């Protein structure tokens, strides 16, 4: 159905389409796309709610509303689609976009399970192979299409500087870390049908809220090796947890505590990393600037060295726009973007291990959850007390 022949992007704007027209599309994706209007032309939007998509297009100056996703992809041939729908739809819509030849930028979480992520990676490989073959026949170049995830906290100037300092061991080895996403959500928040249940949301605050800070922690500290976790339902009448805690060991030897909560009236997002020669701390809520980072030196650090550490460069806030700029550059160059493929999978792997550890009272090691493990297919893993009351039989998702 779809035409997927290579697309020449050297002398024209990128054609973008939006899938899902709710709050995150209006509040984050549309403003970022419009801010890059010299690079991007928004050609269409899709939603199953005709009234909603027509209102979105009218308010945002988007020319063509659709309620049929395949038709939109076929008629408009977008180069890039942004996916702003509930997690349960992410795999299906990402695969459809990839098969049409479009690159994907999907809201977190990328999908509700590692099995679904495997299916996305398989579709990505198939689409890339098909497009590469067609490009060879036509003498064209370029890679992709690729599916990337919205992990905007990686892309601020503060994260870039701190990541470099830790990777270079400028502040010594990282030793102790704390990753905190303590937010507050009331009963009304969970009145939305797809929230608080495994089928719609995939998980609780570890999956839907804390994933951003955990992704940034992994961005700064690198690979993890094992996790030990606990989870509870302390307030809300939901299938998933409303609070979790975890201990994580990293390949570097660093140890971290992770707390994810929707029970905390004093809301904060925080990462603290104690290295041998300095403590780095980031405190914010939904996004940071350079002013939200603090570096406290050990007594033996001289002022000149400390000044170099604290030089975060031009202030680039963490934002959808910052990530989109990077993604557009990758799309034009035909190279794999950050937060895609194996790089995008890391946070979902840690979250899956967190749930397995919490629900089975075991230590989970990196790489142990694969096909055949019940947690590979669903984050509740069929665990007593956590699986849905009337679970649908779990089967692996074909890739």
Verbal overview:
This protein has 399 residues and is α/β, with parallel strands linked by helices. Helices cover 36% and strands 22% of the residues. Strands 13-12-11-7-10-9-8-14 form an 8-stranded mixed sheet. A 6-stranded parallel sheet has the order 3-2-1-4-5-6, with helices on both faces. α1 (23-35) crosses α11 (320-333), α4 (90-99) packs parallel to α5 and α6 (157-167) runs parallel beside α9. The longest helix is centred in the N-terminal third of the chain and has 25 residues, at 114-138. The radius of gyration is 21 Å and the shape is globular. The mean pLDDT is 94.
TL;DR?
This protein has 399 residues and is an alpha/beta fold.
How are the SSEs ordered, and which strands pair?
Blueprint: E1 14-19, H1 23-35, E2 40-46, H2 50-60, E3 65-66, H3 69-76, E4 80-83, H4 90-99, E5 103-106, H5 114-138, E6 147-149, H6 157-167, E7 174-184, H7 198-201, H8 205-208, H9 211-221, E8 224-232, E9 243-250, E10 255-261, E11 263-275, E12 278-284, E13 293-297, H10 303-310, H11 320-333, H12 341-360, E14 364-365, H13 374-377
Parallel strand pairs: 1-2, 1-4, 2-3, 4-5, 5-6, 7-10
Antiparallel strand pairs: 7-11, 8-9, 8-14, 9-10, 11-12, 12-13
Helix pairs in contact: 1-11, 4-5, 6-9, 9-12
